[in-house]
Amino acid sequence: MIRFLRPIGYVCGILTLIMACLMLVVSGFAWVRQDPEVRVFLQSAAISTAFGGALVLLCRASSFNLVARQLYLLTSASWVIMSLAGALPLFFSHFQLSFADAVFEAVSGITTTGSTILSDIESLPPSLLLWRSILQWLGGLGVIGMAVSILPFLRVGGMRLFHTESSDWSDKSMPRIQTLARALLITYLGLTLTCACAYWLAGMTPFDAVAHAMTTVSTGGYATDDRSMGRFGNEILWVSIFFMLLGALPFTLIIGFLRRPRLASLRNQQVTGLLMIVFTVSAILTAHLIVNGSHAWFDALTQATFNLVSVITTTGYASSDYTEWGSFSIALFFVVMFIGGCSGSTSGGMKVFRFQLSYLFLRSQMHKLVHPSGVFPAQYNGRAVPDDIMLSAVAFSFLFFVCLAAITLLLALMGLDLLTSLSAAATALTNVGPGLGDIIGPAGNFAPLPDAAKWLLSFAMLLGRLELLTMMVLFSPMFWRG
């Protein structure tokens, strides 16, 4: 067992040391800004360095050969350890957050969910605002790397359909993996800097531009004000719409486009499906707002498109309280909450391709009802879809709604009303951020929830971010028996 756990401990130690380095960067920023939280970040960095260094020294070895079982555990453990390290500055801050609140906020950040227990956010020291943005930016980078390299190898939820790299984890494949990782990092960093410049040119302050750029490209949704994006004009909202959509696209496609700038590089059924949903639902919402007479046509288009893109990409920004737009809008936002963006992007949700595969599977079954002896192979992006990928996507969908029902029931058991319980479970599993209702809606936060609910939702956010099966398999006795 020690040999089995050693590489997991070593990688978790490295990740903890990376978190400590980021804390030191923020402490330097706090010192320059004469921020009172300098000591908090230095203290958190010291603890993280001691813990991470101990793990690295105790678990180091000349070489590691990871097998699938270790990858499952490593993927889950790395997100947990980064969340706990990320919670330290929040827990030690002068705002006296409970450990449950600090962990909830950190998990929400690192999973790019965007749910928060904080209020009066604009009064927070700049160092804590920056730390929340860094957590989401780091989480978004981890999401992309996990989606394009680890999850397809583990055959999680149909992700193998988009496996562009070798699944042979030998020395021969490492240069390809390293090349992909470098390209992802450069592209992600470049999009973030471009977004920050666009925000600044549109009227944001430099600090707001950088903080919001990190949480936009990562489709995280942490803002620097309780009003979220509601304090900005239409120009900034359209900049946000553009970069939220970029964050929801497969990053391997973006890399291909940057290498060979032509529209054919972006030709993909996922991208087409996502854009069609956005255009169609935005038009419906815009018409709904105009008919109700509450907005002029351009404001209606901006508000409808921004809030829809924010929810469907699982960013979680809000420019207004869309729960006040009527029951039709509430129902529509609740439905699109489950869709999410594309595979290989920073967004959460069930992913567009699973809905497309479900449609193909349903169409095939209907054809077989008419022609029982017929063969109707499903085609996706011009390739035949293997049966095991179809079954994997179906299994994921079944498990998703089982988890949704279980978490909703547990939250209701804790005394929460049905709307709050259901939307909290949905927003955690899909990593959207705000829920519905007076408590956790776009105008509220998760602070009034009991600590037990916050722990449960923290687990649900990790579960949703890791595509369910990656973490659920750890609870199987068969996994530990090998």
What's the helix and strand layout?
Blueprint: H1 2-32, H2 38-59, H3 68-92, H4 99-110, H5 126-150, H6 174-202, H7 206-217, H8 234-247, H9 251-259, H10 269-291, H11 297-312, H12 327-336, H13 352-370, E1 379-380, E2 383-384, H14 387-413, H15 418-429, H16 437-440, H17 451-465, H18 469-472, H19 477-481
Helix pairs in contact: 1-2, 1-3, 1-5, 2-3, 3-4, 3-5, 4-5, 4-17, 5-6, 5-7, 6-7, 6-8, 6-9, 8-11, 10-11, 13-14, 14-15, 14-17, 15-17
Notable features of this structure?
482 residues, mainly alpha, two-stranded antiparallel ribbon, 2 strands, 1% strand, globular
How would you portray this structure in words?
The structure is a single chain. The chain is built from 19 helices and 2 strands. It has helices at 2-32, 38-59, 68-92, 99-110, 126-150, 174-202, 206-217, 234-247, 251-259, 269-291, 297-312, 327-336, 352-370, 387-413, 418-429, 437-440, 451-465, 469-472, 477-481; strands spanning 379-380, 383-384. It has a two-stranded antiparallel sheet.
The tally of beta strands, per DSSP, is 2
How many helix segments? 19
Structural class, please? mainly alpha
Kindly report how far apart the N and C termini lie. Answer: 11 Å
Give the SSE string. HHHHHHHHHHHHHEEHHHHHH
Helix content: 55-70%
Radius of gyration: 22 Å
Strand content: under 5%
Round the mean pLDDT to the nearest integer and report it. Answer: 88
Largest sheet: 2 strands, antiparallel
Strand order of the largest sheet: 1-2
Unreliable stretches, pLDDT < 50, 5 or more residues? 164-175
Give the CA-based shape.
globular
